[in-house]
Amino acid sequence: MVFRKSLLKLAVFALGACVAFSNANAAEGKFESIKSKGQLIVGVKNDVPHYALLDQATGEIKGFEVDVAKLLAKSILGDDKKIKLVAVNAKTRGPLLDNGSVDAVIATFTITPERKRIYNFSEPYYQDAIGLLVLKEKNYKSLADMKGANIGVAQAATTKKAIGEAAKKIGIDVKFSEFPDYPSIKAALDAKRVDAFSVDKSILLGYVDDKSEILPDSFEPQSYGIVTKKDDPAFAKYVDDFVKEHKNEIDALAKKWGL
C-alpha cells in the first residue's frame, strides 16, 4: 500500500512537472521558434498606400507597417532581411495568426476590447480616426448630408459599427456594402455603386484623386497594435516592449511614409 501511494505521488509530481514544462514551452515557444528558424513571418496588408502596398514593378510590399515589421525582425534576429511578409486583409489576418501561418500581424489592426479577449495587442504604434471619402460631385459636406447613403466598408472591420452609431446619433439611416479589400471599395465608389468609402483617414489619403475628397468628419479614434496569439504571453511581452522602446524610430517611420 505504501509502495502504491509512493508511486501515485510520483506520478502526480511527474504530471505536474510535465504541465509546468509544457506551459513554460508554450510561453517561450514562439520567440524560440523564430530564433531557431531564423525568420520572422509577419502578416501585412498589400493594398494600403503608405502602410503596405504591393509594388507591381518589383513584386515587393512597401510601406510604414512593412518597415515596422523589418524593425521587429532586426530586434529579434539582428537582421531586418530575415523576414517573410504574408499578405492579409481584415478578414484573413486573424485566422492566419490562429493557424500559425504568421508569427505576428502588423496590418492596421485596430485595438478593441472585444479583440483583446481573443488576441494579444501591443501598445499602439499608430493612432488615427475613421473618415469618409466621397465624390466631389455629390456635394456632401458631412455625414449629416448622407441620409440613405450606401457606404462601402471592408469586411470584418470596425468601420461599419462606428459609422452606424454616428449616423444613429444624428438621426439618419445609412446602408452598408462590404468588400474584401480597399481597391474594391474605391472601384465601387468610382462606379457610383456606393456613395462613400469609409475607413481610417490616413488610409483614405492613399485613395484620394481629382474627383474625390475626404470629408472633415472624424469618427471613433483608432489605435493600431502589433497582434500575437493569446496563448503566447512571453512573445507578446517582447513585442509590447519593442513598441515602447522603439517609439521614436516608429514615429520617424510614420513621418517617412507621410503619416
Automatic annotation (TrEMBL):
Short name of one Pfam family: SBP_bac_3
Keywords (A to Z) from UniProt: Signal, Transport
Residues spanning the membrane: none
Protein origin, superkingdom: Bacteria
Keyword Flavoprotein part of the UniProt annotation: no
Matching SUPFAM superfamilies: Periplasmic binding protein-like II
CC annotations in GO: extracellular region; outer membrane-bounded periplasmic space
Similarity comment: Belongs to the bacterial solute-binding protein 3 family.
Stated name of the protein: Bifunctional adhesin/ABC transporter aspartate/glutamate-binding protein PEB1a
Biological classification of the source: Bacteria, Pseudomonadati, Campylobacterota, Epsilonproteobacteria, Campylobacterales
